[in-house]
Design brief:
Elements (H helix, E strand, L loop, with lengths): L4 H11 L3 H7 L4 E4 L2 E4 L11 E4 L2 E4 L5 E2 L1 H9 L3 H12 L4 H26 L2 H9 L5 H6 L3 E3 L3 H4 L3 H10 L13 E8 L3 E9 L7 E3 L11 H5 L2 E5 L2 H9 L5 E3 L8 H10 L3 E5 L3 H18 L1
Parallel strand pairs: 10-11, 10-12
Antiparallel strand pairs: 1-2, 2-3, 3-4, 4-5, 6-7, 7-8, 8-9
C-alpha cells in the first residue's frame, strides 16, 4: 500500500533522526549490547537496564512501554501526537509551515534593509567621508561588501502595521520607533544557508557604543565566500580592519566580532570548510593570545 503524503512525511521525519540520540538528549544513558542499545527505562523506577533500543524502536521489558521516536516523545513530554511531531521537527531543525513562513519573512526583511541601507550610503557624503578618512576609499570595496548607512529615516516609512512590528521583532527598530543603527555605518553579515542574518554598525560620531550589533547572539560572517574559495583565511579583529585588507588585495579575509570567543557561525564555517591555514591579524599581543587559546580548543575538535 502506497503511503499517503502525510504518512510519507512522517516516515521521512522519523528516519531523519537517531532514536538513541533523541533518548540520550533526554538524559537516558544507553550502552551498546550486540545489535541493540540498552539502558534504564525513564518511565518507571528501573533498578536494572530493562530498556532496549533496536532499529528505531524501543521496548521496556519492565513497564512494557514501547514504540518509535514519536511514542517516546509523547510519553516523555506528556503531549499528544501532533505536539510530539512539532517537537521532533524542532529537534531536527525542521520548522513547521508557520515557522517556515516567519523565517522567510524575517530573511526578506533583513535583505530589504541591507538594500535600503546600501542605497542610503551612496547618498551620504558623511558616511563616505568617514570611510575615506579610515583609508577605505575604494568604491569597488564599498560595493562588494554592500556597505550601508542608517540615517534614521527608514523607521518612519515602516511605522505601524505588520512591517513595523517585524522590524521591532528583529531589533532594527526599538519600542520608540527609532532605528537601532541610526547614525551608523552598516555592513551586512551573512550566512551561506540563510542569507543576511545580522549587521555590524559603526557609529560615525561619539565614543559611546561605537560598535553596534543586533540584540541577541551575534550572527553572520563577513565575506563567508572566502571559506569556499581559499584554503587559507586571514582573520582580523573587526570589520573595518578586514575591509582594509580586502582593499589592499587580500581577498581571503574575514573578521571576529569581539575577542572573548569565536562566534557560532564562524566556528561552523571553520569546521565545514577546514581551511589548511588561518592567520590572526590583530593589533595587540594580549588580544592575539586570547584568540590563540580559543583556536587551540577549536583545532582539538577537528582532530
Amino acid at each position: 500500500m502506497t503511503p499517503t503524503p502525510d504518512r510519507q512525511d512522517l516516515d521521512n521525519l522519523k528516519a531523519s533522526v537517531d532514536l538513541a540520540a533523541v533518548m540520550e538528549s533526554y538524559g537516558v544513558e544507553l550502552k551498546t549490547s550486540g545489535k541493540s542499545k540498552v539502558g534504564r527505562c525513564p518511565f518507571h523506577d528501573d533498578d536494572r537496564p530493562s530498556l532496549s533500543v533496536t532499529d528505531g524502536l524501543f521496548q521496556c521489558f519492565g513497564c512494557q512501554a514501547a514504540g518509535d521516536v514519536l511514542s517516546f516523545i509523547q510519553l516523555k513530554e506528556k503531549v499528544d501526537f501532533a505536539a510530539a511531531v512539532k517537537l521532533l521537527k524542532s529537534w531536527t531543525g525542521q520548522p513547521d509551515a508557520g515557522e517556515r513562513e516567519k523565517r522567510t519573512q524575517r530573511a526578506e526583511a533583513l535583505e530589504r534593509m541591507a538594500h535600503l541601507y546600501h542605497q542610503a550610503f551612496w547618498e551620504s557624503p558623511e558616511a563616505q567621508d568617514y570611510l575615506k578618512a579610515r583609508g577605505i576609499d575604494d568604491r569597488d570595496t564599498w560595493q562588494a561588501f554592500r556597505i550601508g548607512y542608517c540615517d534614521g529615516s527608514l523607521a518612519e516609512k515602516f511605522a505601524g502595521g505588520p512591517a513595523g512590528e517585524l522590524l521591532q521583532e528583529l531589533g532594527l527598530v526599538n519600542a520608540e520607533e527609532k532605528e537601532h543603527f541610526r547614525g551608523c555605518l552598516v555592513v551586512p553579515l551573512t550566512h551561506p544557508d540563510r542569507g543576511v542574518v545580522g549587521f555590524y554598525g559603526r557609529r560615525l560620531a561619539g565614543d559611546s557604543g561605537r560598535h553596534v550589533y543586533l540584540p541577541g547572539p551575534r550572527q553572520g560572517v563577513l565575506n563567508w565566500l572566502c571559506f569556499k574559495t581559499s584554503s587559507r583565511i586571514y582573520v582580523t579583529e573587526g570589520v573595518l580592519d578586514a575591509l582594509s585588507l580586502w582593499q589592499a588585495g587580500i581577498r581571503e579575509v574575514t573578521c571576529l566580532h569581539g575577542l572573548s570567543s569565536l562566534s557560532g557561525d564562524l566556528k561552523e564555517l571553520l569546521k565545514r570548510h577546514r581551511p589548511r591555514k588561518w592567520f590572526c591579524v590583530l593589533m595587540a599581543t594580549k588580544l592575539a593570545q586570547t584568540l590563540f587559546r580559543g583556536s587551540r580548543r577549536l583545532l582539538r575538535t577537528w582532530a
